[in-house]
């Protein structure tokens, strides 16, 4: 009993936490397939009595505003992720393997920036810069801040990963005649792939769901789906909630798909210590 009671208690607590997290999501999914009269029925029903996909069809075929917001996110997020991951991998490898003037000082200044609320304190400066450069309400005006703000944490992750890879592997490649570029792309990148997958998933979810910066820098043309849904919700009210629920489910799908496809490498990266700072 002394062994089983703690396990049972732990599983009960974890199950309650899982239900608490998943219940709102389940309610949104089920509401998206309810008819409008059933949604406003009192007392409310959890399971839909006459499921319908007409709200999804409406969002996909007739609601052009939501489609534009969705397209903005599908452009802004992948480009920001590619830039963030590419720079983080290259910079992390450079700081981990090369020595150059003020290299250590620059690296630790970047690390120290993690302890400051840059997402809040820098938002005014970012707003002024994007306004001066004519990038307000543009995709570029979001891609550049997203890339810069997420670089410190992911650079530190990649630095830690490359530090854990033995230098003897690179030295053996040099002895065999491999160039620095061949060594990096053929040996170092494959060994660091689990960590790269970890930062891809973290960067995608962070940028896709970001709200404060997107709400500040966009008004209409470049507005992503997260901000766009809150903007149209105030105009639609509760009468169109099943349609909004369908749009919310559609906004959740890309991060879920990314994690579903890459979860094997993600868990392998966590177990291998990709997030041990």
Give a verbal description of the structure:
With 277 residues, the chain is mainly alpha-helical. The protein has two domains: 52 residues, no CATH class; 219 residues, MetI-like fold (Orthogonal Bundle). It is built from 14 helices and no strands. Helix 1 runs antiparallel to helix 14. The longest helix has 34 residues.
Write the layout of secondary structure elements.
Elements: H1 4-32, H2 36-39, H3 54-61, H4 64-97, H5 103-112, H6 118-121, H7 123-132, H8 139-164, H9 167-175, H10 180-191, H11 193-208, H12 212-217, H13 225-236, H14 241-271
Helix pairs in contact: 1-14, 3-14, 4-8, 4-11, 4-13, 8-11, 9-10, 11-14, 13-14
Task: Give short descriptive properties of this protein.
about 75% helix, globular, 14 helices, single chain, 2 domains, MetI-like fold, about 280 residues, mainly alpha
Proper CATH architecture of the largest domain: Orthogonal Bundle
Rg, Å, rounded: 23 Å
In total, the number of strands is 0
Kindly estimate the percentage of residues that lie in beta strands according to DSSP: under 5%
Q: CATH superfamily assignment of the largest domain?
A: MetI-like
Helical content class: over 70%
| Major sheet characteristics | none
Based on secondary structure, the structural category is: mainly alpha
- In the CATH scheme, the class of the largest domain would be Mainly Alpha
CATH topology of the largest domain: MetI-like fold
Uncertain runs: none
């Amino acid at each position: 009993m002394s062994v089983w009671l703690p396990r049972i208690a732990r599983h009960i607590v974890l199950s309650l936490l899982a239900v608490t997290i998943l219940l709102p999501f389940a309610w949104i999914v089920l509401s998206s397939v309810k008819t409008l009269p059933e949604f406003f029925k009192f007392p409310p029903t959890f399971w839909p009595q006459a499921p319908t996909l007409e709200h999804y069809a409406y969002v996909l075929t007739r609601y052009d505003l939501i489609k534009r917001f969705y397209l903005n996110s599908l452009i802004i997020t992948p480009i920001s992720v590619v830039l963030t991951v590419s720079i983080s991998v290259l910079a992390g490898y450079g700081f981990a393997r090369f020595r150059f003037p003020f290299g250590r000082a620059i690296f630790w200044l970047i690390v120290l920036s993690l302890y400051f609320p840059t997402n809040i304190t820098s938002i005014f400066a970012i707003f002024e810069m994007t306004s001066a450069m004519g990038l307000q309400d543009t995709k570029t005006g979001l891609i550049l801040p997203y890339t810069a703000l997420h670089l410190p944490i992911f650079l530190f992750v990649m630095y830690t990963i490359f530090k854990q890879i033995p230098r003897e592997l690179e030295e053996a490649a040099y002895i065999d005649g491999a160039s620095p570029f061949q060594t990096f792309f053929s040996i170092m990148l494959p060994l660091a792939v689990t960590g790269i997958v970890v930062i891809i998933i973290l960067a995608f979810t962070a940028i896709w769901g970001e709200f404060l910066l997107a709400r500040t820098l966009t008004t209409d043309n470049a507005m992503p789906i997260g901000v766009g849904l809150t903007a149209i919700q105030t105009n639609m009210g509760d009468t169109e909630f099943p349609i909004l629920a369908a749009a919310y489910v559609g906004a959740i799908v890309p991060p879920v798909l990314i994690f579903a496809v890459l979860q094997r490498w993600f868990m392998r990266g966590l177990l291998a210590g990709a997030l041990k700072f």
